[in-house]
Amino acid sequence: MAVFKNVSLQGNGETTASSNSTPSQEECFGLPTQVIIALHVFTLFASLMGNSLLITAFVRMKEKVILVIANMAASDLLVVIFLLPRFIVAEALRSNVFLIHGGGGTFLCKVCSFFSDMSLSVSTLSLVVIAVERFLAVVYPLLYMKTSGKRRRLLVASTWILAAAFHLPYFYTFRLVREVDNQGYDYHVCQSSWEPAFNDQSARRRYNIFLYTTVLIIPLLVISVLHITVAFHLRKDKMSSCRNENGTKRIRKRTRSLLMMAISTVTAFLICWTLQIATAFVSLFSPGLFRKCSKMHTVVSSLSHILASCYCAINPWICLFLIPRLFRELKIMVHRRTFRQYAMKGQKMGSETESSNVRLRFESRTCSFAPNGDNHEKSTERSY
């Protein structure tokens, strides 16, 4: 998400990376730092838990149909690993100073920026693949039944290949730059620059337009069109007269589930990304529209970044609550684990009870032989 956060408005009317923020620009921070950090920490834990549960359910079920959902969960986990900690550190320090220098710092600058943005691209492309599969399952069921596990794996691999291809220029553009603040202290920032091979401003603008279009706008349009088509097709059920009452109820339940899933997916996408896309295009095409560090600009920019970063935590919980099989599998897993804990506890209590019974039997047997033992000891003493 570095590219989704690297377009910010500067006072000279040019678009530069937000990672260029220096310690002298602390007054540009809009929302309270504590609030932003709390939201990012909550997003981090919610995303870790939700995506881990999705992947666990996929591993337990071993169903190829859920492979694309597990792929989306894996990409969202990479966002949590490479992006959210950087956001938290930047807010805590109130600057985007890169703390690691040298060759290792340059490597981390390139790799973290690449993987964070690539993972978000994989997530949106996975949503497109899921929408295509639902469209085929409802509109062309015979064609969908011919979809083999190999083809599904190829589709999953293609999401990573396309996302990596979209973001390969990061390894050239992102670099550590040494700067000096007003007080004479030098620091390093991870920023994007297309120079010297290209003109930085024009190349940045074209590349950002390309990324926003291919990674966000086109996927949103494709997902919306496919889900609307599926919804209309489900409402026109031509086989309703051939089903009994139980079959009709089952089909209606599945229809409601699919419609809720479609509405929730598109709504979450719109809520999380609309403001980010709007602010990015305003910064690209009308950089003088907002005054430098104005209250409106800082609040809108902070809010757009928070909503965009929350997207990796919203997807898994939508899938967990609206896909019955996933929720059912996790419920079974929890019940089995609880039963195993109770069984282990019961075995432990049983072993303790058995050992106590053996001890009681031994003590009772010892007590029963005590008189003879005393007489034997007395006779022994007498013999000596």
From TrEMBL:
Name of the molecule in the record: G-protein coupled receptors family 1 profile domain-containing protein
Family note: Belongs to the G-protein coupled receptor 1 family.
Topology relative to the membrane: Multi-pass membrane protein
Biased composition (Polar residues): 7-25
Transmembrane segments: 35-59, 65-84, 122-142, 154-172, 209-234, 258-286, 306-327
Pfam families according to UniProt: 7tm_1
Lineage: Eukaryota, Metazoa, Cnidaria, Anthozoa, Hexacorallia
GO CC aspect terms: plasma membrane
Stretches the record annotates as Disordered: 1-25
Superkingdom of origin: Eukaryota
Organism for this UniProt entry: Pocillopora damicornis
Domain G-protein coupled receptors family 1 profile: 39-319
InterPro entries per record: GPCR_Rhodpsn, GPCR_Rhodpsn_7TM
Keywords (A to Z) from UniProt: G-protein coupled receptor, Membrane, Receptor, Transducer, Transmembrane, Transmembrane helix
Any GO molecular function: G protein-coupled receptor activity
Subcellular location: Membrane
